[in-house]
Design goal:
Oligomer: single chain
Radius of gyration: 15 Å
Strand content: under 5%
Number of helices: 10
Order of helices and strands: HHHHHHHHHH
Shape: globular
Helix content: 55-70%
Number of strands: 0
Distance between the termini: 36 Å
Structural class: mainly alpha
Largest sheet: none
Length: 162
């Protein structure tokens, strides 16, 4: 069942956008000289913005450029990734929440994505994840994502990690 746009989705997404609005577009999104895959992922991300990124670019767990993105690139794209969680996926794609939580959890509480964000940015991400938990609990349960959502919230919530 695709996610249904909730009344407070826009407000929560706007909070994420505001928290990350000063994140500049990096010159490169990946270690593009490392290999052909990194170069292709860099090219894919360079062709989009947080407002234009779609599941066509980042929705395949087996070929996901966000897995290779730098911390700067992750901060730049985070508002767009959050948007994909609340949008209904097009045919052929599943709900983006599983990948989103995986990216947020990464290596746990001290991962470079968390550590690279300001307290205000972490708070906005934690609030967004909490919003997903509160508004889509049934879907999280159906897709066996409740534990991942809670773990992501715990990692990004400064009140717990301090």
């Amino acid at each position: 069942m695709p996610p249904i746009l909730q009344a407070n989705d826009s407000k929560t997404l706007e909070s994420v956008r505001q928290a990350f609005q000063d994140c500049l577009r990096p010159a490169h999104f990946t270690d593009y000289q490392h290999c052909e895959e990194c170069a292709e992922h860099n090219q894919t991300l360079a062709s989009r913005t947080p407002d234009s990124v779609t599941l066509q670019e980042v929705g395949n767990p087996g070929w996901d450029p966000i897995c290779f993105v730098s911390p700067e690139g992750f901060r730049y794209y985070l508002p767009g990734l959050a948007r994909l969680v609340v949008e209904s996926p097009p045919d052929g794609h599943s709900w983006y929440a599983a990948q989103f939580f995986w990216h947020l959890i990464s290596d746990g509480p001290s991962n470079v994505r968390v550590m690279g964000c300001s307290a205000a940015q972490r708070k906005a991400v934690a609030a967004f994840v909490r919003h997903i938990i509160e508004t889509r609990a049934e879907q999280l349960d159906q897709e066996c994502l409740a534990d991942d959502a809670i773990r992501a919230w715990e990692i990004w919530n400064d009140e717990i990690s301090e």
